[in-house]
User: What shape does this take?
Amino acid sequence: MRVLALSHPVFEEHDAGWGHPERPARLDAALRGVRAAPVELAEELAPEIDRRLLELVHEPGYIDYIQQVCASGGAQLDPDTAAVPASWEAAVRAAGGGPLAVRRLEEEAADLAFLAVRPPGHHARSSAAMGFCLFNSAAVTAAMLVERGCKVAIMDWDVHHGNGTEEMFEHEENVLYISTHQYPFYPGTGGIVDMTAHRGAATILDLPLPPGTAGDLYRRAFEELILPVISQFGPDWLLVSAGYDAHAADPLASLRLLPSDYSYMSRALIELTPPGRTICFLEGGYDLDAISASVSATLAGAAGMVVPDEEHRFHSSELAFATLDAVKAEAAKVWDLG
Assistant: This one.
């Protein structure tokens, strides 16, 4: 498999503050994982986003505000999110990676793109920074593709619910948003939704999981819920909000995935879209070794390789499986789950 990896040195200059878990070393860890993967690799620099594309999901006044904050020396944007002068270029290049990846994949220059970018994006709302995020990179790419008449599935396996992404597309029937996340947990959203609540709600699927949930639950959820739903939706493109903070070693959360679980998920997902139509966006993940191993496993899985299960596997609680059953019952109102 040919993988296009997009990154840029400026991503290391975005500084969220001393001791902050969203630190530059995360980028190096992700790139080590990319380069260790058993794939044919091409690397390219992420460009700055065309402002018109950024405005597909973000309010113009908010974009101006972030630019002005960075130009004036930076500021604390919320209790978890900060910006420094370099954050503007980092954020617009993080958002610019997706459109370039689309172009390169359409040119058949690669089979899959992995965006090693920061700051992350899936908490960023239309007019507010949140949860380490300034601009919502995956959402920008999804909105651009929808504008071109495509159907887009977004699989968000970060440990936190991608509230920003969900808000942006909750009424958009051409975007399917699926999130697996620890719950209750930051940002407090992503409970089981009524899939008949409003127009477009059928294309929101949240799987809120209790602490301790492991790969056995994820694999069953993919087989019985996530893969059937994506298959029936029939996306032209798959975007993965690839956070690695659901790994068992992550210091900020309490789920128990392992590298082989990421390999399983990527291998299963890659088969559901046309060749060369999958883009992964780095989101969270705060244990450096876990990031490297999981990124490498993700790309190996996407290449069709089976990463052997670890000798020690975790097991999910009865509550986790009961939660899956409850979500399946809700999803069965809309999708054929057999």
In short: The mean pLDDT is 97. The CA atoms of residues 15 and 23 lie 7 Å apart. Residues 2-331 form a domain with the Arginase; Chain A fold (CATH 3.40.800.20). Strands lie at 2-7, 40-45, 75-78, 81-83, 112-115, 152-156, 175-182, 204-209, 237-242, 278-282.
